[in-house]
Amino acid sequence: MKIVCLGGGHGLAQVLSAIRPLCSQLSAIVATTDNGGSTGRIREAQKCVALGDIRRCCLQLTDDQSLIHSIFKHRFDGGELDGHSLGNLTLLGLTQLTESPTEAVAWFNAMLGNAETIYPMSDQPTDLVATLQNGERIVGECEIDALTEIPNTISLSSSIKAAPGSVDAIMDADLVLIGPGSLITSVMPSLLIPEIADAIKKTSACRIFIENITTEKSVMKNIPLNGVDWLETQLDYQFCDLSISAEAINDILLHFNEEIKVNDQQHDISQLSQVFSEILKIPMRDHSTSTTIN
């Protein structure tokens, strides 16, 4: 089965780790609009895409006890490099050498010995933009997360193209997994790119949205609707066939005599693997038909 995962932050990295043992052809499309921490400083100085979530996803696919994992996870302490991850700086160097974030990620992933394919959502930098009810525009993920009112609309600051290969991966997939993570800053960015949105709408893959298991700490804690309804209103298209709620996950885990574990507001990887093993038993959409799982 060909599986493509979309998202960002810790959520996507956890999904990749959980689903990896269950399939042989795994790809991920990573949000690149983060503007905080080391990533934000690099973006501001170099005018490039966000690299932190890409690094996290690539490293999640390596043995966390290996030397190479420790090397690229290392953060410098003090001086001009204070807080920077060696993995982020390596990705920056590869981006400058190849002049293509997509190629840079491929090389970085190969250095780690990963067989999976990781795509940035785009080779072009862009930022998230929130428009408030009064028309004020707020630019940047960190600034949006700090809002106290739900934005009226979310958009990208510039028109960008999907990363080479990412659209083909979605169109050729048997299963597309979206989320979990912050609805605005992790889930939405790639879905706002017209080419990716079009592929999500047209793919014959079964599209599954994985909901968060706890309430977000960001502005989204004030959301009046459930996540799927809010996202589809914002995106103006149906992005999933099936939504897996925390309650549904708990029902699946009850078959294993377990209850949902929460690790720092995140899904437990071993439990996600159990959930995915059950989901993969569901008959998926046949590429030759238009049957949809509802």
TrEMBL record:
This is Uridine diphosphate-N-acetylglucosamine-binding protein YvcK. PANTHER family: GLUCONEOGENESIS FACTOR-RELATED, UNCHARACTERIZED PROTEIN YVCK-RELATED. It holds the Pfam family CofD. It comes from the Bacteria. It comes from Pseudoalteromonas neustonica. The keyword Disulfide bond does not apply. SUPFAM superfamilies: CofD-like. The keyword Nuclease does not apply. Keywords: Cytoplasm.
